[in-house]
C-alpha cells in the first residue's frame, strides 16, 4: 500500500521557504519534490486557504510564508492538507451480523481512535520552528553549511 507523504513533503518545503530569500515558484518546488507543478499549486492552494502561505503572481512571484514558523504546528498543516487518514488499517464489513467481526472492529476502532488522539496531541505541540531548529542543529553537527537556496 502506498503511503501518503504529503505532510512530510510539505513540512520540508515550508521550512525551506522560511530561509528562501525570494518567493518559491511552483516549478522550483515541483523540481525539489520531483512532482508536477500542478500538484504543487493544488497543495499550496490548500495551505493558502488556511492562511499559512500566500502567492504572488507575475515575474518574481511565487509562494511565501504568511506566518512565522513558530505559529504553525504539524497539526495545522495536517488539517490544511484535508486531514489525511493516519492509518491504512481498515475495518471489515464483509459480515456485519457476525459477532466476531463486530468485536474485532470495535477493538480496532477504539485502539485507532486512541492512537490518533495521542498523535494529534503531539502534532499540536510541534511547531515548524522546532523542526527548523532541529534541522539547523543537524547541519551544524554534520559540518554542512545550509544555504537559503538549498532545495530550490
Automatic annotation (TrEMBL):
It comes from the Bacteria. SUPFAM superfamilies: Winged helix' DNA-binding domain. Gene3D superfamilies: Winged helix-like DNA-binding domain superfamily/Winged helix DNA-binding domain. InterPro entries: Tscrpt_reg_Rrf2, WH-like_DNA-bd_sf, WH_DNA-bd_sf. Coiled coil: none annotated. It holds the Pfam family Rrf2. This is Rrf2 family transcriptional regulator. The lineage of its organism: Bacteria, Pseudomonadati, Pseudomonadota, Alphaproteobacteria, Hyphomicrobiales.
Amino acid at each position: 500500500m502506498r503511503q501518503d507523504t504529503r505532510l512530510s513533503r510539505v513540512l520540508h518545503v515550508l521550512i525551506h521557504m522560511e530561509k528562501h530569500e525570494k518567493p518559491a515558484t511552483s516549478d522550483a518546488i515541483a523540481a525539489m519534490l520531483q512532482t508536477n507543478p500542478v500538484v504543487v499549486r493544488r497543495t499550496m492552494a490548500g495551505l493558502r486557504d488556511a492562511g499559512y502561505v500566500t502567492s504572488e503572481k507575475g515575474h518574481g512571484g511565487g509562494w511565501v510564508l504568511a506566518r512565522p514558523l513558530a505559529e504553525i504546528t504539524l497539526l495545522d498543516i495536517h488539517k490544511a492538507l484535508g486531514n489525511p487518514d493516519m492509518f491504512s488499517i481498515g475495518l471489515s464489513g464483509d459480515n456485519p451480523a457476525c459477532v466476531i467481526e463486530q468485536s474485532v472492529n470495535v477493538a480496532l476502532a477504539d485502539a485507532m481512535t486512541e492512537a490518533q488522539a495521542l498523535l494529534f496531541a503531539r502534532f499540536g505541540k510541534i511547531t515548524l520552528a522546532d523542526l527548523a531548529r532541529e534541522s539547523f542543529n543537524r547541519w551544524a553537527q554534520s559540518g554542512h553549511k545550509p544555504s537559503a537556496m538549498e532545495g530550490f
